[in-house]
Amino acid sequence: MAAELLHTEVPSGLRASHADRDRVVDALTRAAGDGRITAEELDERVTAALSARTLGELSVLTADLPDAGGTARVKDVVRIEQQGASAVRADGWAVPRRMEIASAWGDVTLDFSGAVITHDTLRIDLDMRGGTLRLITRPGVVVDADALVIGYGKTKVRPAGDAGTSAVLRVGIHGRLSMGRLEVRPPRRWFGR
After folding, report:
1. Single pTM value for the model
2. Residue 167, Cβ neighbours under 10 Å: how many?
3. Are residues 147 and 53 in the same domain?
């Protein structure tokens, strides 16, 4: 029941009960015991949990923690929709099974170098005009853009790591890229590191 409260889509305006608050405090205590949050974070979050009025206020306190079974919560579908802006998914983001990206005149960067990968495949359905889709890979992340239709655009795909590394994540890009660019590359290396 604790995992259900903590990681399901609930109406955020519903009033929280004492039992709801207790379940969140228990989850926070477990997370601190596992070393996922610091003692200071535990104090702050427990204080917020005990004074929370709604389920929405409680769910925010555990959104970045695994459920009771110890697995990180990962959405099956993530949608990025933007116009004239940039979106970045970087360190610690949870890779879903599928992404829908609709972008006009903006860039989207998906950095897999520090991502939490819980599935072996990611399908990206792309509808992009006038921007760059940038995938920053790491060894074991394989990108296939053969199903992507490109009109007046460019692609630059560089593999990450050894060819002999087994695939941890296979990314398939589908859809359309018009007047834009697809860039797939490993993280930049800086001298002295």
Report:
1. 0.62
2. 12
3. no
